[in-house]
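@here heads up, posting the sequence + SMILES for the S-adenosylmethionine run so it's all in one place. Ping me if the SMILES looks off, I pulled it from an old spreadsheet.
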Amino acid sequence: MQASANIDYMTDNPNLENAYALRSPDEMKTLYENWADHYDISFGQDQGYQTPREVAVAFAAAGGGGPVLDVGAGTGLVAAHLHAQGITDIDALDLSDEMLRVAGEKGLYRDLIAADVTQPLPHAKRYAGIVSAGTFTLGHVGPEGVVALMDAAAQNALFVISVNALHYESAGFADMITRLGTQITALSFKDVRIYDDRADEAHRNDIARLLIFRKT
Ligand SMILES: C[S@@+](CC[C@H](N)C(=O)[O-])C[C@H]1O[C@@H](n2cnc3c(N)ncnc32)[C@H](O)[C@@H]1O
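bot reply: prediction finished. Complex C-alpha cells:
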C-alpha cells in the first residue's frame, strides 16, 4: 500500500487512453514527462502512428515552406517527416519540457519553445507555416489554440493542423472555422487514418481531419 500511495495511475502510466482523458495542464505535463523517453517506440512505432507523416506530406503538397512552427511538437516526429520533404527551418513549441528535450536531442529544430499554445506566444515571430499533429485531440487542445496561432502566422502562411475527428465534432472546430471567416482562405480538409494496422483494435480506424488553409 505504501509503495502505491503517490502513484497517479493516469499520469504515471502514459498511454493513449490516459492521454485522451487528461483534464489539466499539470496532468498533461506529468503524463508526457513519463512518456517522453519511450514515446517514439511505445506509441509512434508500436501503434503505427502516422499522423506526423500525413501532416508533413500535406504541408509540402500544398506548397508549404519555412520558417515553420510545429505546435505540440512532442519528440519531433513531424519535423523528421518535414526534413524528408526538404523543409528544415522549423521551431518546436510544446508545453512539456521533457518532450522538447527528446526533440532537441534529434537536432531537427532551430529553436525549442516551451509554451502553452492557448496563451499569447512568447516570441513575436511570424511563421510562413504552422503545422501540428496529435495535439488538437481529446483531452488536449481545443479550437481556441488555432485562433491563438493566427497571431504567430505571417500573411499567406500555410496551416496544416490535424484534429481528431471525434474532437472535431465535440469541441467546436467547425464553429471556429466559421468564426475565422475571411481571416483564412484556400480552406480544404483531408481525412486520414491516425494509425495503421499495428494499432490496438479500439483505435485502429481512428480518423484525423487535416485542416489545411492559408492566413489571408
Ligand atoms: C500526442 S503528442 C503529439 C506530439 C507530436 N506532434 C507527434 O505527433 O508525435 C501531444 C503533444 O502536445 C503537447 N501539448 C498538449 N497541450 C499543449 C498546449 N496547450 N500547448 C503546447 N503543447 C501542448 C504535449 O505536451 C505533447 O507533446
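MO: The first strand starts at residue 68 and ends at 71.
MO: One more: The pocket of S-adenosylmethionine is lined by residues 28, 32, 51-52, 72-74, 77-78, 93-96, 99, 116-118, 133-135, 140-141 (CB under 6 Å).
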